[in-house]
Amino acid sequence: MMCRGKGQQKGARSGVDQGGRSGSCNLRRWAVLVMMAVYAMWPCSGVVLSWPGVRLSPSEIPQGDPALIRVELKQGETPHVWWMEREVYLVRGGQTRWYGVLGVDLKTKPGTYPLVVKVSPGPAETKLDVTVVAKDRG
Predict the structure, then answer these.
(1) How far apart are CA 22 and CA 62, in angstroms?
(2) What does the pLDDT profile of the chain (138 residues) look like in tens digits?
(3) Coil vs helix vs strand at 27
(4) What is the pTM of this model?
(5) How many whole angstroms separate alpha carbon 49 and alpha carbon 53?
(6) Dihedral sign of CA atoms 75, 120, 73, 100 in order
(7) CA separation, residue 119 to residues 5, 8, 74, 127 (Å)
(8) Of residues 35, 53, 40, the one with CA closest to residue 103
(9) What's the CA gap between 83 and 67, in Å, rounded?
(10) Dihedral (Cα; 99, 104, 110, 111), 10-degree rounding
(11) Which residue stretches of the chain are H helix?
(12) How far apart are the first and last CA of the chain?
C-alpha cells in the first residue's frame, strides 16, 4: 500500500519527508506503532484465530475499542487484511510478522463480522469470524 496524498503522482516530492513518505503515511505508521506498544503491555494474551499465524488481541472486541492483529507468515509472503469493508494498514515487525489495528465503531451492533486475510504471492485467502461485544458506556 503506497501512502500518497490525493491526486499526488508516484514519485512526487511535495509534502514528502526525507524517507519518501507522506505526512499521512507517517501518522498512520506512528498510530499503529503506538497501538502495538500499548497492546504489548496489555495483560491479555490474545487468541489464535482458526487460520494458522493470525492472532487477535483482545479475542472479542468491545464496541468503540481497537484490537491488535498479528499475522505471521513465511519469509517473502505479504498479508492483506480487510475488516468492516476496509483494508487494514499493516506494518512489518521482523522478517515474518505483520501488525495492524482493527477499529470498531461505537455504533457497530454486537455480533460476528468477517475478517478477510489474503496472502500474496499465492491464492491463499480465508475469512475468519471476529466477535464484537456490547460495551456499557455509562
Answers:
(1) 32
(2) 445 444 545 554 444 445 555 566 676 666 666 655 554 444 444 555 556 689 999 999 999 999 999 999 988 889 999 999 999 999 999 889 999 999 999 999 999 999 999 998 877 888 999 999 999 877
(3) helix
(4) 0.64
(5) 8
(6) positive
(7) 26, 28, 10, 12
(8) 35
(9) 11
(10) -40
(11) 23-41
(12) 39
The kind and range of the H/E element at 118 are strand 111-120
d(CA 100, CA 71): 9
Chain-centroid distance, C-alpha 73: 15
Q: How far apart are CA 67 and CA 101, in angstroms?
A: 6
- C-alpha cell recorded at residue 48: 489464535
| Residue linked to cell 496524498 | 5
* CA angle, residues 136, 137, 138, in degrees to nearest 5: 90
The residue assigned the cell 514519485 is 11
d(CA 20, CA 28): 15
